[in-house]
Amino acid sequence: MPVRKGNFGKRPNNQQSKEILIATCDSNIDFTKPVSFSEISQHEYTGDAYICGVISGETELGHRMGIRFISAEPNHFVIGFKFSRRPIVYIAKNPFTIGEYRREIDSFNKLNSEICL
Prior knowledge:
alpha+beta; 38% helix
């Protein structure tokens, strides 16, 4: 795993460190494995072009995962995304991280309802 082991390497019996390391490896798509794109649609909003869709793949631990995205064209600039699963957010139990994740979801849902529907 390319994740820095940090405290886990020093204290392998620490359950919280172990859970955080596992959650980190299970919170992102591993782009060294095959990915697929689906639900791709093009939209125009206030005169600008956008692409909405889903990237599907696997985490480093082999679990399926999807990421909904909104991309501004023609530069493929991703302006919004929403992960289907983010275990690191809940394993870490950090109120700031959980709040940021919820704001990310709210922001994506607002963008999605304005642009992609």
